[in-house]
Amino acid sequence: ISSVNIELCFISRVNIELCFISSVNIELCFISRVNIELCFISSVNIELCFISRVNIELCFISSVNIELCFISRVNIELCFISSVNIELCFISRVNIELCFISSVNIELCFISRVNIELCFISSVNIELCFISSVNIELCFISRVNIELCFVSRVNIELCFISRVNIELCFISRVNIELCFISRVNIELCFISRVNIELCFISRVNIELCFISRVNI
């Protein structure tokens, strides 16, 4: 029915849990951790991980993840109704998510980040990325993306109905986008930007670019 885990793990830990109603995990893990969880109603994870962490979660109704990860993290999540992720990642992070109804991601990433997301109804992404970010997203109905990227960013997106993109990019940005119905793009780019876009119905683009820009 319910499970509460408070753990201090200093070297290595493997956690396999089946929780059918509610699960609360508070963990401090200092070297390596593998977490495999199946949670069918609600799951709350509060974790501090200092070196490496692999998280594989299947959550079928709601999942809240609050995580501090300082070196490397791999997160694979299957969330079928709603997912809220609040994450602080300081060196490298790979995030692979399958979210079928709604997903809210609030992330602070300081060196490198790879984000691969499949979102089928709505997704809200708020991201602060300070060095490099690679974002590959498939969004089928509506998506709101708010991003602050300070050095370099590569964005490959397939959006099929509507998309709102608000971006602040300070050095270089490469944007490859396929948008099939409507798109609103508001961008501030300060040094260089390459934009390759295929838009088939309507598009509104408001951009401020201060040094060089190539637009195809």
Q: What string, H for helix and E for strand, traces the elements in order?
A: EEEEEEEEEEEEEEEEEEEEEE
User: What percentage of residues falls in helices of 4 or more residues?
Assistant: under 10%
Shape: globular
Structural class: mainly beta
Mean pLDDT level: 51
Strand order of the largest sheet: 1-3-5-7-9-11-13-15-17-19-21
The proportion of residues in beta strands is over 45%
Major sheet, described briefly? 11 strands, parallel
Helix count, DSSP H or I runs of 4 or more residues: 0
Taking all Cα atoms into account, the compactness measure Rg is 18 Å
Number of domains: 2
What is the tally of beta strands?
A: 22
- Low-pLDDT stretches: 1-13, 29-33
Q: How would you characterize the overall build of this protein?
A:
The protein is mainly beta. The chain folds into two domains: 1-110, no CATH class; 127-216. Helices cover 0% and strands 80% of the residues. It contains no helices and 22 strands. The protein has strands spanning 2-9, 12-19, 22-29, 32-39, 42-49, 52-59, 62-69, 72-79, 82-89, 92-99, 102-109, 112-119, 122-129, 132-139, 142-149, 152-159, 162-169, 172-179, 182-189, 192-199, 202-209, 212-215. The strands form two sheets. It has an eleven-stranded parallel sheet, with no helix packed on it. The N and C termini lie far apart (56 Å).
